[in-house]
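Q: Hi! First time doing this. I have a protein sequence and I read that you can turn it into a structure. Is that right? Here it is:
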Amino acid sequence: MGKEKTVSQEENLENEVVKDQETEVSGEESTEAKEEKAEISELDKVKAELAEQKDKYLRMYSEFENFRRRTAKEKLELVKTANEELVLQLLPVVDDFERADKSFNDETEIKAFKEGMDLIQNKFVKAIEAKGVKKIKVEAGDDFNDEYHEAITRIPAPEEKLKGKIVDCIENGYSLGDKVIRFAKVVTGE
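A: Yes, that's right. Below is the predicted 3D structure, encoded as structure tokens:
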């Protein structure tokens, strides 16, 4: 019986070792299975996040394209109608010129015609001044300034004090706001 006990103890020990090995193997398998499941679930999360980011990108891209088209359309409309207000202010001046032309044919009095032309000119100047256009004031004897003046010719100075200065203004200059849109054409003395 002593031999039987040792054999059965040995069998029990072997069974326990086998069970432990099976537990270890099944534990390893369950750990590997858990890791695979974790990798799969993490991969699904990454795929879902990628899909969400792609959707956000596509939405943002389409919103930007819509914005770009809308602003281009608005800009085109603005360019088309930018001068509408100015033209509307100048149309009465054109009407006054037409009336002056008719009255000149009917009357031969020059004084009345001159007064009418002065009125039209004043109306026209007020219309462009209302839009921010200002005349650049130039007088004989002023210093030449290349930021506002364009010298078209030089002549001998009629007086000593006009040497290097403006002698005459041929064409007035104008500015729109702070920007010179047409330089005053002047004659300088040498």
